[in-house]
Amino acid sequence: MSILKKLASQTAVYGLSTMVGRFLNFLLVPLYTAKLALVGDYGVVSVMFAYASFGAVFAALGLETGFFHFARKTGEPARVFATAGHTLIMTGLVAVLAAKLFAAPIMELLGYPQHPEYAFWFALILAADALSALGFAWLRQQEKPWTFAAVRLTNIGVNIGANLFFVLLCPYLAAQGYDWAVYWAQPEQMVSNIFLSNLLASLVTLPLLVGTFGNLREGLDRDLLNQMLRYSLPMVLVGLAGMVNETLDRILLKHLLLPGAAEYEVGVYSAFYKLSLVLTLFVQAFRFAAEPFFFSRSGDVKAPETYAYVMRWFSYVLGFLFLATLIALPMLGPLLIRNPQYFADDRGMSIVPILLAANVCLGLYYNVSIWYKVSGKTQWGAVIAVGGAMLTLAGNFYLIPRLGFEGSAWTTLAAYASMVVAGYIWGQKAYPIPYELGKILPALALAFLGGYAILTFPEMQALSWMALPAYLMALWLLEGPRKKIRNRS
Predict the structure, then answer these.
(1) Is 113 helix (H, G, I), strand (E, B) or coil?
(2) 306, 297 in Cβ contact below 8 A?
(3) CB-side exposure of 280: number of CA atoms within 13 Å?
(4) Which of 2, 138, 262, 310 is most buried, judged by most C-beta within 10 A?
(5) pTM for the predicted model, two decimal places
(6) How many CB atoms lie within 10 A of CB 56?
(7) Measured between alpha carbons, how far is 302 from 6 in angstroms, rounded to an integer?
(8) What digits encode the pLDDT tens for the residues 327-376?
(9) For 115, phi and psi rounded to 5 degrees?
């Protein structure tokens, strides 16, 4: 239990910064949906950030995961950090220069030729964020979650403050007659203001991580870099495939639907996608804590049992959050999406349970995929991820013209579910872990059946509050008898 307590405590701290920060960021959704002139404007924001998510994978080169692996393998985390850091500085400078020189053709290719400045802004964001991610990885590896949380929350605070200034305060001041605020308050400038806020937050974060960059004194080790790239570059494929599963649907919606409807569909889809927030944030917080934890335990002979133990309790929490979100959905939706235009399409609320189930699968995949990371077989992880991405592409191309964003939601669930199954089957052959499926599957099945009953039968909706105590009682029955037997022995 001490292992679980340590992981839980670190997950809680990472979750403090991740969940509180992302929740504060999520509160920008009502601001955007209320202040942006058109639903399609929020679609533009979503599409550009979708493109940026792919750029972020290239910018990071998979070196964040590579850092954890080689820090453990070499026992010299400072030297590993320095090699990765110098590499990211050089590639970041090249990317920023290229974006500056070729801004116009880049933005024409992306579909927004009227805004060539976006290319340069996003190149700066991605270069800064890649270097910051390495700094955050150092803090995680050194088990400094509170420092991690402080820097992360500062980054988010700057982003939120800048958004409030540009999107809320400037229009107010312009209405009060302040001439300097008129430019920033123009409706056509609002989308640009959102991107500028993110740029400011990314640039502010680097000085806050200056303590970690002292490791750069170790210099660049070319032999080590070659080893790291052989390990890390397959992680780029994994990351790209992950972004295909997570964000490509926004881009495809824009290009596969009629121009007049595309931005609207992307805007509605993106807004309701956010309602899976709590579950998504827990999965992200767990990943931040679990990745260095799993690597640190990989040399232990009992590591597979530890991984199985963590997986069981993690799946219980996933089921609880799935149910809790569905119970709160009737209140959560109108509270966070303030513009009635988004609710004009009934499909918006209908995709939330599908996306919640998809995020449950994603969380499970983070666990079952640990085998290829700790064993150094990242190329096989890339194969699984690419397979999921191919399913995402095929599903979106087939379903978007027929179902719109509903097709994207179902495709996301199918892709993540298939990756869990493939990761589990392949992992049991390459790196067996004794997952207790006899407990995990019944717990998740109860959560899904409870959610289905709440959504399907009107008479059950009035009693939805009973679903969580019933779920916890079921978990006690799964765990209780075993605990009693141990106590008697």
Answers:
(1) coil
(2) yes
(3) 16
(4) 138
(5) 0.69
(6) 18
(7) 17
(8) 888 887 777 776 777 787 778 888 889 999 999 998 899 888 888 877 77
(9) -130, 70
pLDDT in tens, 56-105: 988 999 888 889 889 888 889 999 999 999 999 999 999 999 999 999 99
Confidence of residue 461 (pLDDT cuts 50, 70, 90): low
| CA–CA distance, 271 with 396 (Å, rounded to integer) | 19
* CA dist., res. 264 & res. 342, Å (int): 9
In three-state secondary structure terms, 360 is helix
CB atoms within 10 A of CB 392: 27
Tokens encoding 163? 């958004």
How many Å is the maximal CA-CA distance in the chain? 79
> How long is the chain?
489
Classify each residue of 120-131 as buried b or exposed e, where b means 16 or more C-beta atoms within 10 Å of its C-beta: bbbbbbbbbbbb
Q: How far apart are CA 263 and CA 40, in angstroms?
A: 4
Q: Is 252 in contact with 111 (CB distance < 8 Å)?
A: no
Rounded to 5°, the CA angle 471-473-478 comes to: 95
Coil, strand, or helix at residue 298?
coil
What the block records as the tokens of 14 is 């990472």
